[in-house]
Design brief:
- The protein starts with a strand and ends with a strand.
- It is built from no helices and 14 strands.
- The chain is mostly beta strands.
- About 0% of the residues lie in helices and about 55% in strands.
- The chain has a 6-stranded antiparallel beta sheet with strand order 1-2-3-4-5-6, with no helix packed on it. A 4-stranded antiparallel beta sheet has the order 7-14-12-9, with no helix packed on it. Strands 11-10-8-13 form a 4-stranded antiparallel beta sheet, with no helix packed on it.
- It folds into 2 domains: about 50 residues; about 80 residues, OB fold (Dihydrolipoamide Acetyltransferase, E2P) (Beta Barrel), CATH 2.40.50.100.
Length: about 140
Amino acid sequence: MTVSFDEGSPVHITFAEQGAVISGNCAGQVWHAHCQRTGVELVLDGLRLEFSTMPPARDADLSPACKSPMPGVIVALAASVGDSVRQGDVLVVVEAMKMENTIVAPLSGTVAKVRCAVGQQVVAGQVLVEIGLDTEG
């Protein structure tokens, strides 16, 4: 396989698989990846990197209801009803044990309801903001 990067000449990469070990050669650098149930260990020129696997996203993660992950106090609201938000936009900041935790939009849409106010005590799992899905198309 040949890979080209934005800057520089194409690089030829070869792969060889032996069970749970994949070896490769990239521009003269030999590497080995050990695939395990919990992740991948990559060895490149004596440098060892470990990557753990992440569980797949659950449907609940994309719920339009943004909930507090822990008990705390609302210290900031960054969105109001009717605001258009994109996935990852900050909606609310909850302070718990003197640490600020940002609650972000799990998906793009329009803020349908804000169910909290600055200074309000909230419990874990409490719905703070609801997002209406954009139905463009």
